[in-house]
Write a structure and sequence with these properties.
The protein is α/β, with parallel strands linked by helices and about 180 residues long. It is about 30% helix and about 40% strand. The chain contains two helices and eight strands; from the N terminus they run H-E-H-E-E-E-E-E-E-E. The strands form two sheets. The protein has a six-stranded mixed sheet with strand order 2-1-5-6-7-8, with helices on one face. Strands 3-4 form a two-stranded antiparallel sheet. It is elongated and about 80 Å long.
């Protein structure tokens, strides 16, 4: 066996035994960090949705105001009931995305509108597509709305946490056309 080095099993075992305590010490931190990040994400979602309710739900003409807001996370994911209860102080009717239905308006070619699946009242889908943390206290949020036809749009919000509350830093809208 010339030119070959022999495998030294003792050195490998020592390295593994040194790494095990380090891995075990870090594992609980990851478990604790999960719910904290989820709480932050839900706080950001709530802040962005409240911004959308105030800007999109207060149309000057009553006939342009949606009766229902349907909340969606990602694409087609409903929020849980506990999250929706965060908005019980608002006058708007709020439901999960699954309560919405997109109907074709008779007499108008290829025009669709959002309605409540049960009551058939007009509505609007508000979607929080993605939240990306730029820093521990800064995030970029991709959001969208759809009411029907060409009444749709998306926005990129940049938010910062100051004094424990999320605040808007910048907003860029793009319409759905």
């Amino acid at each position: 066996m010339t030119g070959r080095t022999r495998y030294n099993g003792t050195a490998m075992r020592q390295a593994v035994f040194l790494l095990i305590p380090i891995v075990l010490a870090l594992a609980p931190a990851r478990i604790v960090a999960g719910p904290v990040r989820t709480a932050e994400i839900n706080d950001i979602r709530e802040y962005i949705l409240r911004e959308q309710f105030s800007s999109l739900g207060n149309a000057k003409k009553k006939e342009n105001r949606p009766v229902w807001f349907f909340v969606e996370f990602g694409r087609g994911q409903d929020p849980d009931d506990a999250f929706l209860r965060r908005f019980s102080d608002l006058r708007h009717k709020i439901a999960p995305y699954s309560a919405a239905r997109i109907d074709r308006i008779p007499g108008r070619f290829a025009y669709r509108t959002v309605v409540h699946r049960r009551t058939r009242e007009k509505g609007m889908i508000l979607s929080i597509r993605e939240i990306r943390f730029l820093q521990p206290n800064d995030a970029r949020v991709s959001a969208a709305f759809f009411r029907g036809g060409r009444d749709a749009g998306s926005a990129t919000y940049e938010v910062s946490r100051r004094d424990g509350k999320w605040r808007l830093r910048s907003l860029r809208w793009s319409d759905g056309t």
